[in-house]
Protein 1
Amino acid sequence: LGPKLLYGKEEVPTLSLAGVGVVGLYFSAHWCPPCKAYTPQLRKVYERAKAKGKSFEIIFVSGDRDDDSFRTYFGTMPWYAIPFADEVRKKVLKDTFHITGIPSLVLLSGTGNLLDKSARAKVMTPSFLSTLPRIVDLKDWGPVPSEPVSLVVRHNGQEHEIECEPDEGWELLRMQIFSVTEVPEEQQRLFGLGVVCGPVDESVPLPKALAAGLAAQRGSGLRIADVPDSRRSASSSFKDEASGAGHHRGRLDSEQAWVPKAEDKAAWYQLDLGAVSEVAGVVVAPRADAGQFVTKLRVSFAEAEGGSFAPVDGAREFEACVTMPQQPLRILFASAVRARMVRIEPTACHGGHRALRADVLLAGAEADVPPEIVVLGNASKEDPFEVRSAAGPDPSTRMMEEQHLAMLQAKLSNLPPRLQHEVRGLEGAKKYEDRGLQRQALDDIPVCALDRLVREGGASEGYDVAFMRKVLLWYKKFFFQWTNSPRCEHCGAADTKTVGTTAPNQEEKSYGAGTVEVAQCNMCGMQTRFPRYNDPGKLLEWRQGRCGEWANCFTLVCRSLGYEARHVHDWTDHVWTEVYCDSLERWLHADSCEQALDTPLVYERGWGKKLTYCLAFARDHAVDVTQRYTRKYEEVLTRRSQFSEQDLKRAMAAINDFAIDRAGAALPQAAAEQRRGALERRSAREEEEFKANRSTAAGPVQAAEQVGRTSGDAQWREQRGELGADADAKAKALQLSEQGLACVSSPGAAPADVARVRAEQLKELVQAKFQHLCDSGKDQQEAAADAIAEAVPLRAALEKAVTSTVRDVRNSNSTEDWKALTSVGPLAGDLAVLSMAVRWHDQGFGNQKGRVRALLRRGGSTLGEVDCFGIAPHEVGEGRRQLRDVAGIRPSKGDTIALEYVVGGGGGHQLHIEHLTLSCATVQTVSAPQGEEIRAAVKRKFAEHAAKGLGPREAVAAVLADPPKAGTPPAAQAVAASKPPTADAQARMKARFAELVASGLPPNEAAARMLEEGKQLQAAPAAPSGAAPSQGAAFSPPARGPSA
């Protein structure tokens, strides 16, 4: 390639490409029409590769006839070029790779080895980018660790710490992960270690991957200055807002970001520390509410207000954010600087605006936080999918599948053609099981950032549900784009109008496009093709469309993240996804267009759709799920007239049997039988759910289910009859256009609020217990000891409190009959506290009569009842209540607390419960020895605070703020169980694993047996220093197969 290359208008050393993973030699010329058509497409591939952090460069080898043509053509390219005058080099390259026609593309490795001498078509395939190495995996992160490295392993909302030996490799690390998370090795999807998007690459040696993880955490112990809005300024803000308002909110906890004016070409954002400090770097983050962020920046500083600014690190251009959402990124200087004023100057951005949230890192000696790995397994324990399976297609399995398909076609042959065609739904669902496609999808997902959002959100629901909410947020806001009419591909204008359709070309057909819409540009008059692709791999690259494309790609995303997913076809022209959540033991509706989760009635109640058939397809089953989406099933049946219900049942049963048999043929017999049993149990539970829906036509409806369609152009929604079922639903839909339903039904409070509420709950309960004991004549120290001794298990109980909400219950049936509202239970332990909050009113005339009561049920008996909030007010009001007992009886494990409401007799009343929220915390009993240890420590601390002059209640509060650490009560063992094994236990577990493998057991079976034995090893006392690790052979657990 010679010593010099062109980059833009400058010559650069060819060695600037050192370390690049793949280099493309692009032979092309300005005079060649196919080249002029191909170059813009190649540029899109190149830009996507850069955006995904891929190590890929292109060198243009020109075939132009003169220098002016070369410079004009090269000016449209963002990559390198061989200098036009160097004819010798161009000829050598053409001869070396036998270039006989253009455009032509040759791919080389970073070391110069030939990868593909005819890659022109290959680079245009959706899977090409997934074959490129990532920059993060090739980068030199400095010396690799030789000593054990502490790692934080996060899984399912839990955190574990392990010690990782770099030279032991990935297999033993996965075994360690298995030992703390119980996620089988073949189901583990690992993220983190400095990789922002996508899983870790296990082809990278583990020591190098650990070095990247350590580098990513460098500076994580540094203190953030937390500069207030009053000491932040900027060269401009988008709408001239003051600091702290609108587009001038650049704090890390801002709901938006600082955004300068577009015409401000030398924009800067400045932070005043108030005094000269040692500054180690800055921390930056993307805009919080949109896919806009700064990708490159420079930093300068001054020691005094009004002083001259000096560039940091010789005006070095720092790399900044790469995706959205992204955890705050620390940018460390080569050495700390003394500064009062710190100025950040964006030099490149993503999303069209230089959106920035930022703060200053102050120098200090704090230790860095250990690197982290986020582990995703199969979201359902009953899902046998193995992400690591290396087995290729079995010819006998394929033959059996063809036989099953022939039998299915025979069964369907005498049914209506429309039902025969429904087997295509299974073929679509089968694509989502492709491991290559799943890997492509994972490359785009910022799993660690989504996991952090779940942890910061303090959600009181299952991790699988909370994580899915964040996936929907990312997909809706930052990944996929709704397209009413495509942007003009000629002038870039958005002002286009669809004028018709045409047939797809061969390439478009290869990606499942059945039709192509044609849009006319109102600016330049040119036309743009908009293929309606149906290939999920192509859609990962295309990232635009309407509900069909959205649901198709989103279902693949769900499967790649380990969720069992169904693709639901609504015959009134809509599609969406269902995901199975173990924490709820049921399927949840998930509409990515609307950012809606578990709002199945939104189509009927909100959009006003007249549903007919909603059929769901997964890899191993097919179900008519219409009854989940309606409370007017008898009315729906009158519209299902295309064929008999009996024909539909026969067709779905045949398709379902085929799906189960086909999927089961690829599994070991035991696993196939296990899976079939799981599907049968789920089917029975689902039928019970449908039965309950049929009997509760007037049941509660969520607020989010009363909103019309929010996705798409308003006129288009109105034409389809989906803008809203009534005027209120339409108004809400217009107000929330393109925002989705998450803002209507977002669960939980902000993280700080959750912690504050729990702390206040705990304090209130302990103070009440203390006062009660004092009133009964107990000594203050003894009362404090008894009250606070319950705090440790109570704190754990509140952390694990299960929250549920009932919304929008209306009833005007003025009778004295009590009606079921909701229930809590069976309780997992003794009741610690049931917190209730209601917003409601009684719209009756004269006296209010609406009430809510709680009943304690044990077995088949009702033991007692208690009024919850008194009588409902005329005006909308709120009520709160905390229950620790019902009519003096404390609910215990296995009991149920049922809530009922009554409207009241007399006529003219309507009770409206806008929402009722329940938070139920259960706790186990503290054992006597450990309880006494805590009580003794509490007495000592209470006496110390009392001696300082604090009153009794203040002394209790002080002890509660810093509770004694004397021992760990049994109720906290659930927390302690999640702590990592000791270093000695880990060593014994590793030794045992090696011994089992050496004995001939496969690694998976050895890891499973090691884990069973490790549970006893962890509880066993540590071996004396220098002693050989225990072999743990005191028991023989049952063997487990590779699929366990």
Note: The radius of gyration is 32 Å.
Protein 2
Amino acid sequence: MNCELLATCSALGYLEGDTYHKETDCLESVKDLIRYLRHEDDTRDVRQELGAGQIVQNDLLPIIIQHGQDKALFDASIRLMVNLTQPAMLCFGKVPDDPVFRHHFLQVTSHLQAYKEAFASEKVFGILSEMLYNLLQLDWDERQEEDNLLIERILLLVRNVLHVPADPCEEKKVDDDASIHDRLLWAIHMSGFDDLVKFLASAQSEQQWSMHVLEIISLMFRDQTPEALVSAGQARSTEEKQRDSQELEALRQKEHAEKRSRTLQRGTRHSRFGGSYVVQGLKAIGDNDVIYHRNIHNFKHYTHDTGKALRRVPKRNRRAKEFKEKRRSALNVRLFLREFCMDFLENCYNHLMYLVKESLIREQTQQHDETYYLWSLSFFMAFNRGNGFRADLVSETISVRAFHFIERNITNYYEMLLTDRKEATSWSRRMHLALKAYQELLLTVNEMDQSQDDSIRQSSNVIKSNIFYLMEYREIFLTLLRKFDETKQPHSYLKDLVESTHLFLRMLERFCKGRRNLMVQRKKVRRKKSRGDKNLPIPETTPEALAETFRIVEEELKTSGFQLSESLTESIVPFDATSETPLEEQRTEAMVRVKESMLARLGPEALALLRAAREVWPEGDVFGSADVDPEEELELLKQILHANLPRSSPPEPVVEEEDDDGLELEEEELESVQVSETEFNFFDFIKKFASPNIVHPYLVLLKSFSKNSPHTNHCIVRMLHRLAFDLKMDALLFQLSVFNLFNKILSDPAAAAYRELVTFAQYVLKRFFSLATQNNKAYVELLFWKNVGAVREMTEGYSKDGEGKKQTWTEEEEEELRKLFEEHRHSEVPDIVETLLPLLSGSTRTRRQVVTQLVRMGLVDNAKELKKQKVGTRIVLWTEEQEEELQMLFEEYKDSDDVLGNILKKLTAKRSRARVVDKLLSLGLVSERKELYKKRSRNAHGKSSGKPMTEEEFLSELTQGDLDDSMDRDEEEDESEESEEDEEQEREESPNGVRKNQSVHAPVERRADVGPMVTALHQGGMSGPLLWLQNCLNRTANDREEDGLSQPVPLVPLTETNEDAMDNKSIQRLLRKLGMRPPANEQETFWRIPAKISVSQLRSAAAALNLREDEPRVGEEQDGPTSQTEKHLEEEEKEEEKEEKEEKEEKEEEAEVSEVSGEQRAQALRALLLSRKRKPRTTKHTASVSDFTSMEDTESTAERSQKKNSAKRSRVLDDDEEEENEADSSTAMDMDTKSDADSEQEDVSAPVKRRRKMVLIDEGEDED
């Protein structure tokens, strides 16, 4: 030892027996030692010499035990011991590669292990606990800075001692025996230090020590498993006994099989000589056959590699080492830790994990401190699951935020694993910790599903909805399996990954089963790809060519009268406010764009650019003055065309591809992610696992099937079964190494214990041999891993040579295509690609190939410019002959049941249903669309036979008219949409997969079915929310009309009044009437405007929310003492008395019932219900039916119709008494034919009377 160090240590004092005698300058000597440690070299020589001198065991610990009352000496000793016990990894930075420094590293580690053994004393932790307790008793205003420093140093000292790794070679302890770490934990428990740790974890005033407390707790449970602690001190369960007996039986069978095989290898007679045999057909090194000098029974294990030196595996290709195995501590230690876990979960877990999480998010901790958080989350949540699951104990870490935090850390660890290769092992361990935490979260959510508490199950559904909705959470296991590397990630990581994937798929499958459609997030990547310089055609700029170009542009502008469409005016933007380009350069670019538009002979676009640029840059009249004439604009355009301006770079073609395709572009310049929603299909999701990159990790884990747990083997087989049986992709497993593995499973002596594996292996082998009889190349295919395309070829047949390969374009073919395109680009042909296809010489090019080549050559900017014209848009004008033909067909079929259908069948020039209807209206052949609806046949006996109709028939007929009308309208809309669909597969779709609406503007009609409901809501003070709803509908209609996109739009109330109104049942009934969709599941909170509602329907619904002029408005003064409602009731009573007299006079009259209009049916129904109102037992169920009657007709029309309806009304009233006795009669009748498909429907099996009452009461509530 260095003489100065030796002198300093001697000045501390000496130990005599159990008593330590300190010197007078003991405090100064401790401070000198701290100073020496501060100036030690890279080999940590001072630390090694102090460790060799056992300064901690012989001096420092006795000082704090016997002289703890000397506060200054106690503080200095604690400070020195914190320095001496810090981990060797912190001293050297990492495990040194140099042999000399590796030796010093091991020396420091051995000294730390000696310190740990010395600290395993109740006296030491008794002093530390007492000192810490006294400090914590002080209030925050009484504590000095030195007190806080001492608290932190005591916690750091305990953490350092617990962190010291065990030395298994020295200890040589078995399970259930007390190791040094166990003795240290027992000393902590006996001294009461564990109670102080729990206090620090739960106290609000001690939040600053949260990270130190979490480190101490995680190091205390370093060697433990949650399962071992849960079962500590308890009798073994039946499941555990059965599992142990199965393992023991498997070992017994294996031993018995090996013993039997050894018996068979021995001959009947012992011989000292094994004999020599010539193996015919198996060549040795030369040309002779192999001579075998061993026992013939061992020949099946013969290989040419016998006796050869094993090839050394390079270090970079070696498998990752497994982490330290867990051991079982002594029973008393496990019992103490079990009690600690239960108290910690009950009082401390949620509070402490919240504080640590906030510190991690705000980056107030040291690097890699999140690993303690991840370990604690997985450990204590697993303990909670095993020890009588209670969700409230771990509620802090059961949230979507926890999933997001872990997913972000997994991604970060994987990126660092690839970049920081020297520390790949450390990053792999951290990644494994994060994966374990993610797995435990899934297990906890799965446990919540089985809870008896409805609120807990509802919470788990909300969490699962969010997890399954986001793409990052759904596909994290796909990514981890695809990126698995056995040289960096150990076998235990792969085991946890496979089991987590199995659990996630099982939860996802169960979640999808109870739902018809599950909407999830989908991401689409939009990339711009640099194509380099292209041989673009440069327009001629000779004076003659420019004059010809200007003449064409001038004629086009004069023909249009210098009028521009709104869409063109709005799409032209000459100025980019977000660009870093100076204003002067942007003005020059705008002028260049005007010139290029004219060179391309696009007159309206050039004029629109000129006018837009004039508004942006009015100064200097560069683009003309504000009151410029059209002739002056032409002169300006001519000057710009002849000006010598720089030519701008051609636009770059845009390539769109989905993120799931995995195509990597070589030259990426810009990338943006488009997020949309799509319907989730579990079967399609499983298809993503059908890849050799994902199957390979499963087979790596299957190689150790004899060491795997039964659950792990089940997870492997279940995934392979999904691929081979569910997806019919068993050919993915047709590989020689897989069959070799199957052979080991089938020939294993304990194969009976792997029944599931054996059954699956037999199934795959049977499928292969059946395929081999049809495909003579099947045995060759065994040598290769196959993707989905190769699997399809192997099972369905191989494609011919050259099929599926891209045909390259020669220079001659490109030149021919360019020439043909230039000849026909300005022609009036509807589809230039269809024109070019037959003109291409000696080529069988498809339309897609030609379009792609035109984009690649730069002849067009985008493939959308060449999109095939849609059906129904080519024929726009009607010739005189076609109009005459239409008139003749209308005269011929106007009396038929389906006028429009017959006309469409007979028309020679096929047109869409909507265009034919418009033409019939314009010709005046029909006055309204309703005349062209398909006629529905009425019930015979109720219409012409003179027999009285029953109440069910009457009500069904009453609603059938409206139903037929709505069905006809829906049918017409569907057919008009179908007629304009594109026949090509290249269909434009909006981001959520909904085809863009090409709706024709229809006149806005007010919906009459919601009038009474709107009136009642206005009278109830709901005018404000109705106005907000009307604005939302109009705004959505305008957006859909401008953009051409139809996406579900949520109705988000931003004020408290509107938010309360959305919870009103009357408002919700109105929304269903208008076709709005309620929240589908836990993922949605707001009502939505469905995507399939057209612009005209939206405007009609918005118009229906206005209050009619003839209806009373809120706040209007009422004349007289009675309100409008009371007057209305009085009028109804008078009408009642009048109708009663008419019924008595005409009751016995019988008249033929002709076709009754919707208005007359309403009057009849009203009379029926008013008659019931007089009966006492039905009085409480009746309501005003004024909503059913129309007040638009004149009194004379009503009088004429009353005589026609009286006979029918009398028959209905007679049958009504008989119908009342049949309360159980039922009919399938839909009373809400205008509601959206997503809205709730009434039970069709309800009795007629009950449903009728429900409708009437509903309408009555709307009025009130």
Note: Residues 725 and 764 are 9 Å apart (CA to CA).
